[in-house]
Design brief:
Membrane topology: Multi-pass membrane protein
Keywords: Cholesterol biosynthesis, Cholesterol metabolism, Endoplasmic reticulum, Lipid biosynthesis, Lipid metabolism, Membrane, NADP, Oxidoreductase, Steroid biosynthesis, Steroid metabolism, Sterol biosynthesis, Sterol metabolism, Transmembrane, Transmembrane helix
Order of helices and strands: HHHHHHEEHHHHEEHHHHHHHHEEHHHH
Helix content: 55-70%
GO molecular function, one term: 7-dehydrocholesterol reductase activity
Bound molecules: NADPH dihydro-nicotinamide-adenine-dinucleotide phosphate
Number of strands: 6
Radius of gyration: 23 Å
Distance between the termini: 47 Å
InterPro entries: ERG24_DHCR-like, Sterol_reductase_CS
Protein name: 7-dehydrocholesterol reductase
């Protein structure tokens, strides 16, 4: 079997690297070949606690008005037992299972059956069939980029329903929030398990599989690089973007509808959260082709981290601000609201402009203008598994001359704005900025480790030219 042969080859490669005493040899970018104890401990921690963390946050809103400390205090003082909390938690319902199945099926149909039309009439939008980056095995995959179209169709139908069709209530998502959580978990675990089995027995590209020999690591970080069913159903592109990110804006709209129903108004904080996160989501789909060049698609393998994360973690934890505002309808004073808006828009501008600069630079191979000038860069090279030598460039001007990950800095500013929109009464809405800070700092380190393995001494020249990661002069 191709996968078994590749598994053997993986072992041999691992052995060779150890003998050579270098990890900077061919094809060594992408996720690790070996698992150190720290990675293993982190993975076991996440596999065990991430589902509990999601449950804890959602339960504390449903049962404790979004207080994160009250459930713990109740448990510690013996006021309540775990079973009391669990017994008050809504179970899986046929209705939720029906809604969720319809939702996922609808997104699969939009993804598979409707080739992109938007690029034919939207100036500047890149959609339709696009190529991804070169994989470590030297493969270039093709993708059908039609996320913007799926997002527009879904939202037009949502608004048509809310305005005149009235087939279901716009509060449907909020009203089934916990039963839907069980459905999302079932899909998340099913797809991650399927991806693992597929990696062993029928991988899409055996040469792009990685086996560490550690079951938990392989399950979490994935074996296959780009698992597909047929020519076009790409797991990473589908699960990363839909159903989770398309749902993000619908979930927020459903929370706004619930706030209106319960409190008779939609607060300015809820509008800010809907608008700022809406811009972020729309930006994601407008730039879906660019997304093919980000770490998720270019480097991460598809396992539980992406599969479960996209189905459960993202739609449930990225939307905590909206959920919180249903329970606590915060009306901000004008200065506070304006401050949140400016911070959110500035963060978005930095995030987008930085990403755009790199994309333009890479697409034109440096033949472009950044801030009115020819970009400065460092020439670098790397080798793929089959021994082919490739050349690349690392930009050292524009925002990329300020810091090595200034796009993350903009993202963090936007994330902070969502949280600040919720006021200062509770900790729960601040989970997002805490999580994003950990995620993006960890991502910085992970990416730099990989780039260092990939580019070797060229990476050292780059870090000498651009010494800071996120904040010039600080970190
Ligand atoms: P980047 O877009 O920064 O991509 C990093 C890659 O870019 C590197 O691996 C390297 O790839 C290349 N690169 C690094 N430095 C340079 C340079 N100076 N010039 C040219 N190319 C360079 O990171 P991500 O893919 O992680 O993030 C993309 C965006 O998505 C970010 O803005 C981030 O904030 C956002 N994001 C949001 C998340 C969320 O949950 N909201 C989660 C993750 C990301 P190569 O091997 O090609 O050289």
């Amino acid at each position: 079997m191709a996968a078994r042969q590749e598994k053997k080859l993986s072992e041999e490669r691992k052995h060779q690297n150890m003998q050579n005493g270098t990890k900077a040899s061919q094809g060594q970018w992408g996720r690790a070949w070996e698992v150190d104890w720290f990675s293993l401990a982190s993975i076991l921690f996440l596999l065990t606690f991430a589902p509990l963390i999601v449950y804890y946050f959602i339960m504390s809103c449903a049962q404790y008005q979004c207080s994160l400390t009250a459930p713990l205090l109740d448990l510690l003082t013996g006021n309540k037992h775990l079973s009391d909390i669990w017994n008050r938690t809504p179970t899986l319902t046929y209705r939720a299972a029906g809604i969720y199945s319809l939702w996922v099926t609808f997104q699969v149909v939009l993804y598979m059956s409707f080739p992109d039309f938007c690029h034919k009439f939207l100036p500047g939008y890149v959609g339709g069939v696009q190529e991804g980056a070169v994989t470590p095995a030297g493969v270039v995959n093709k993708y059908q980029i039609n996320g913007l179209q799926a997002w527009i169709i879904t939202h037009v139908l949502w608004f048509a329903n809310a305005s005149f069709l009235h087939l279901f209530s716009p509060t449907i998502i909020f009203d089934n929030w916990i039963p839907l959580l069980w459905c999302a978990n079932i899909l998340g675990y099913a797809v991650s398990t399927f991806a693992m089995i597929k990696g062993y027995f029928f991988p899409t590209n055996a040469k792009d599989c990685k086996f560490t020999g550690n079951f938990f690591y392989d399950y979490m970080m994935g074996i296959e690089f780009n698992p597909r069913i047929g020519k076009w159903f790409d797991f990473k592109l589908f699960f990363n973007g839909r159903p989770g990110i398309v749902a993000w804006t619908l979930i927020n709209l459903s929370f706004a509808a619930k706030q209106q129903e319960l409190h008779g108004e939609v607060t300015n904080s809820m509008i800010l959260v809907n608008v700022l996160q809406g811009i972020y989501v729309l930006d994601f789909f407008w730039n879906e082709a660019w997304y093919l060049k980000t770490i998720d698609i270019c480097h991460d393998h598809f396992g539980w981290y992406l599969g479960w994360g996209d189905c459960v973690w993202l739609p449930y934890l990225y939307t905590l601000q909206g959920l919180y505002l249903v329970y606590h309808p915060v009306q901000l004073c004008t200065a506070h609201a304006l401050g949140v808006l400016v911070l959110g828009l500035l963060g978005y501008y930095i995030f987008r402009a930085t990403n755009h600069q790199k994309d333009l630079f890479r697409r034109t191979n440096g033949n472009c203008r950044i801030w009115g000038r020819r970009p400065e860069y460092i020439e670098c090279s790397y080798t793929s598994v089959d021994g082919t030598r490739y050349h690349s460039k690392l930009m050292t001007s524009g925002f990329w001359g300020w810091a090595r990950h200034f796009n993350y800095t903009g993202d963090l500013m936007g994330s902070l704005a969502y949280c600040l929109a919720c006021g200062f009464e509770h900790l729960l809405p601040y989970f997002y900025i805490t999580y994003m800070a950990i995620l993006l700092i960890h991502r910085c380190l992970r990416d730099e480790h990989r780039c260092s393995s990939k580019y070797g001494k060229d990476w050292k020249r780059y870090t000498a030219a651009v010494p800071y990661r996120l904040l010039p002069g600080v970190f």
